[in-house]
Write a structure and sequence with these properties.
Helices cover 61% and strands 15% of the residues. It is α/β, with parallel strands linked by helices and 633 residues long. The strands form three sheets. It has a six-stranded antiparallel beta sheet, covered by helices on one side. Strands 8-12-13-3-14-15 form a six-stranded mixed beta sheet.
């Protein structure tokens, strides 16, 4: 049994905060119209299946007063396992905890499917097992149509699943029938393959290739030898042509060398060597630079003295100076400048002399280097006529070698063509042998497959006959009639138990299958049959309540699952005091099955001492609802 423990909700329907503990026993939930008594069990349905029995949309489930999305938590046990479900529109997810471990999946539809697997029932079955109102299961007792009763039986007995199984059996039967054609096609293909094997067989002798390979090797070695001779002759010709070129330039290069030697003879070496001349020229240039700097300073001093003479004051200290003193200083500076200019003239003359000596030395060195280069580059003198004769001989020999190479290549190509043809022929011979071997192997496998399929066909025909008999026996009318009859027998037996508790067994209701194959029922009072429309409201209510609890007990048995919670929503209205007493007998009977039973009514009912607790639902001034416990026995 699945035992619900707690239900908590925030901002769901008109509840801002709902905390509800499910307790074993009989409990009354009372309140005025619109006080959200029924919503407690709609919240439970919304948490587990994301929908509710009244079909309220999400915007109606969310609390319209607070304007916030709902969050619902449910805890329950299933055997030794504890579960905690959180359905939160705030977070946009559903969380599932098993013994404290989060087993939630990523997608909400996957989590809803997982919850349904845990509860082992769909939404409609869960509602039938945990929540009943005065309209519930009335389709079973509707005298105008058989549709409701048939749909109820189909859903309860899961006849749709049996129809699917029957469809699979029928499909398997058709598949087996199709195998006859498959075996026939396989046999025909085998005969065609046998006929083609005899015409495709081909045996050819391979061609020898060893002799051709040996000849190819000899040609390769001869070609390699002749190619070496060709390379050597071409190298000798190259060297000979170089000698001829050098011999042709001999006379011209010797004339150029004599000219350079004559030019060198005309130059006489200076009295001083090149290093000394360069040293002297460097000293003269340094002295010249120094004296030029001094002349510039003296000229600047002279200009300043001339300006000071015009003012009569010393340009350095600012004191007055006589004109004679200025004249003396000017004369001294001019004497220094004249001596310096004379010295500079001598420096320039000496510099030109030493520069000329340096140029002479550099020209001598250049001519010596040119003569040495020409001397080293001058080719040896040789006999040009002898060289030309040797060149003609080598060219003749080269042509003979090239002709020999061309002949060898032609013979080699001919042998190579024969070798390639032999290789291609032998490859074809090997391919034909492999093909014939594969055909024989595949033919043997095919024979084995034919034997196997023949055996399968015989087995399939036997199974086919058995399937036909199954389909005939379990056809849409046959198996439905058997199962519905058994269900109605169990329902009638269970209803008799509750009828004894409700009304001492005086009123009886029996379900059966009529001559048209439809589910029908009859109601008797002290063995007198009467149509249900002729019964009073109180009597009809008793019959419906007996049928209701009998159906609930059967649903728990056929659905392989049961719940500790059952809500009875306003089913007392049409009952008199005896009817209510009979109903309390039924409820006391159910308490013995560890049920947490809740009755919903506008006000507390008579015989309230039977209740274990009384719970009140109250509408507050702000439009929200609160639930609180009034009394506990």
């Amino acid at each position: 049994m699945i035992v619900f423990q707690t239900l908590k909700a925030q901002d769901c329907f008109s509840y801002t905060n709902l905390e509800f503990n499910f307790q074993t026993g009989l409990h009354s939930i009372s309140g005025m119209n619109g006080s959200s008594k029924t919503s407690i069990f709609l919240v439970l349905q919304q948490c587990l299946y994301n929908k509710n029995a009244k079909g309220c949309k999400i915007e109606d489930v969310n609390n319209k007063i607070t304007g916030k999305p709902y969050e619902i938590e449910v805890t329950f046990t299933k055997g030794a396992n504890a579960y905690h479900i959180v359905n939160s529109k705030k977070k946009g997810c559903i969380e599932i905890y098993h013994n404290g471990v989060d087993i939630s999946l990523k997608r909400i539809p996957d989590n809803l499917k997982l919850i349904e697997e845990i509860l082992e029932c769909d939404f409609q079955t869960f509602c039938d097992l945990t929540y009943q109102s005065k309209e519930s299961t009335l389709n079973l007792l509707d005298s105008s149509t058989n549709k409701g009763r048939s749909e109820f039986a189909n859903r309860t007995l899961k006849l749709a699943e049996l129809d699917q199984q029957l469809g699979r059996m029928d499909a398997y039967r058709k598949e087996l029938e199709g195998k006859r054609g498959t075996i026939a096609l396989l046999s025909e293909s085998l005969e065609t393959l046998k006929a083609s094997l005899s015409s495709e067989a081909c045996e050819m002798a391979p061609l020898p290739t060893a002799e051709l390979q040996g000849r190819m090797k000899v040609f390769s070695e001869l070609l390699e030898d002749w190619q070496g001779r060709k390379v050597r002759i071409e190298a000798d010709l190259g060297r000979l042509q170089t000698d001829l070129s050098r011999s042709a330039n001999y006379a011209q290069q010797m004339l150029h060398l004599k000219g350079k030697q004559d030019e060198l003879a005309l130059l006489s070496a200076p009295d001083k060597d090149l290093a000394e001349c360069r040293d002297q020229l460097s000293r003269i240039q340094q002295a010249e630079s120094k004296r030029t700097t001094m002349v510039a300073l003296w000229n600047k001093e002279l200009e300043m003295l001339k300006k000071a003479a015009a003012t009569g004051k010393c340009h350095a200290c600012g004191h007055e100076v006589e004109a004679k003193q200025f004249d003396v200083q000017v004369t001294q500076i001019q004497t220094h400048i004249a001596e310096a200019n004379e010295f500079l003239e001598r420096c320039k003359s000496g510099g030109v002399k030493y520069a000329s000596r340096i140029n002479t030395w550099e020209e001598i060195h250049r001519l010596e280097q040119e003569i040495a280069r020409l001397t080293n580059a001058v080719p040896y003198e040789c006999d040009a006529e002898a060289l030309k004769q040797e060149e003609s001989r080598l060219q003749y020999e080269l042509r003979q070698v090239q002709d020999e190479i061309s002949g060898l290549k032609a013979e080699q190509q001919e042998v190579q063509a024969k070798y390639d043809e032999a290789i291609k022929h032998n490859a074809t011979v090997a391919a034909v042998k492999d093909l014939n071997a594969n055909i024989r192997e595949n033919n043997a496998k095919l024979h084995i497959q034919i034997d196997q399929h023949a055996q399968q066909l015989a087995d399939s025909e036997r199974r086919l006959d058995l399937l036909k008999s199954w389909v005939g026996i379990l056809g849409p009318k046959g198996y439905r009639t058997v199962m519905v009859n058994r269900f109605l027998q169990s329902l009638n037996k269970t209803m008799s138990t509750y009828a004894r508790l409700m009304c001492d067994g005086r009123i009886k209701c029996l379900f059966f299958i009529n001559e048209a194959g439809e589910i029908d029922f009859s109601i008797t009072d002290d063995a007198k049959a009467m149509d249900i429309v002729l019964w009073s409201g109180g009597e009809t209510a008793r019959i419906k309540i007996v049928c209701l609890f009998a159906v609930l007990e059967l649903l728990e048995v056929t659905g392989a699952t049961s719940f500790n919670v059952l809500c009875l929503d306003e089913i007392f209205d049409a009952l008199d005091q005896d009817g209510k007493a009979g109903l309390f007998n039924v409820l006391e009977y159910l308490k013995g099955k560890n049920k947490a039973l809740y009755t919903i009514a506008h006000s507390e009912l008579a015989l309230d001492l039977v209740y274990d607790s009384v719970i009140a639902a109250e509408k507050l001034n702000d439009g929200t609802t609160r639930v609180f416990q009034c009394t506990t026995r």
